[in-house]
Amino acid sequence: MAGEPVAATGVASVDTQAPATPARYDGYGDLRFGMDEPAFAKAWQGELRRLGPPGATCFYLTPTWVKTPADFAFMFEGGRFVRYDVGVAKETAPGGGKVGMGAAQIRTLYGTRASELPHKYVSGAKILRVAAPQGTGLLVFETDTQGRVTRWRAGTPPQVDYAEGCG
Predict the structure, then answer these.
(1) For residue 53, what are the domain limits?
(2) Pairing of β 31-32 and β 72-77
(3) Left (φ > 0), alpha (ψ -120 to 50) or beta: where does 52 sit?
(4) Which of 21, 44, 64, 155 has the least C-beta neighbours within 10 A?
(5) Spatial separation of the C-alpha atoms in residues 70 and 67, rounded to whole Å
(6) Which of these, 127, 107, 108, 125, lies nearest to 117 by C-alpha position?
(7) Domain-located, residue 116
(8) What 3 state SS string does the chain have?
(9) Total structural domains in the chain?
(10) pTM score, two decimals?
(11) What is the model's pLDDT at position 74?
(12) pLDDT tens-digit profile of 92-128?
């Protein structure tokens, strides 16, 4: 129940204690991984801006209200929605993770489903990779060298693990 202390193990129940959020392991709101671009645009029902060269097999769509694409964007590869990227604290990941949290908080929220890897480019920084409690989809949290989450993404392998985005 919300507001009650977490069990002595320190592992919160992702399903019962996480805040409501449109972010999901299998998509975002009504958007599901695997949708093609026309189905995605119809489900989004808002204006989107395409990022990337014309004809590219990997590109991002971002809502027109987003000022900095690194803050919030949807990745497409091979004509399908495969991942979304978040770089702001106002968006909450499935299970409660957010930009600004410490790595220890992420490990507490997600328990044994969270594995830790060294960051590919930043010495001392970490990648926390979280498997969905059931079904498909993964979360990836990136930390800085002080262990604070700087950004996160959700998606399907292998795209969710691309450190460079479409790069």
Answers:
(1) 15-161
(2) unpaired
(3) left
(4) 64
(5) 9
(6) 127
(7) yes
(8) CCCCCCCCCCCCCHHHHCCCCCEECCEECCEECCCEHHHHHHHHCCCEEEECCCCCCEEEEEECCCCCHHHEEEEEECCEEEEEEECCCCCCCCCCCCCCCEHHHHHHHHHHHEEEEECCCCCCCEEEEEECCCCCCEEEEEECCCCEEEEEEEECCCHHHCCCCCC
(9) 1
(10) 0.86
(11) 98
(12) 999 999 999 999 999 999 999 999 988 887 888 999 9
CATH of the domain at 146: 2.60.460
Instruction: For 43, list phi and psi in degrees, rounded to 5.
Output: -70, -35
Report pLDDT digits (tens) over 19-77: 588 999 999 999 999 999 999 999 999 999 999 888 899 999 999 999 999 999 999 99
Q: How many angstroms separate the CA atoms of 167 and 39, rounded?
A: 25
Measured distance CA(141)–CA(103) in Å, rounded:
9
d(CA 135, CA 158): 16
Rounded CA-CA distance 30/43 in Å is 6
Where residue 105 falls (left for φ over 0; alpha for ψ -120 to 50; beta otherwise) is alpha
Q: Is 166 exposed, middle or buried (CB count within 10 Å of its CB: 0-12, 13-18, 19+)?
A: middle
Read off the tokens for 10.
């320190």
Residue type, 154: A
**25 domain residue, yes or no:** yes
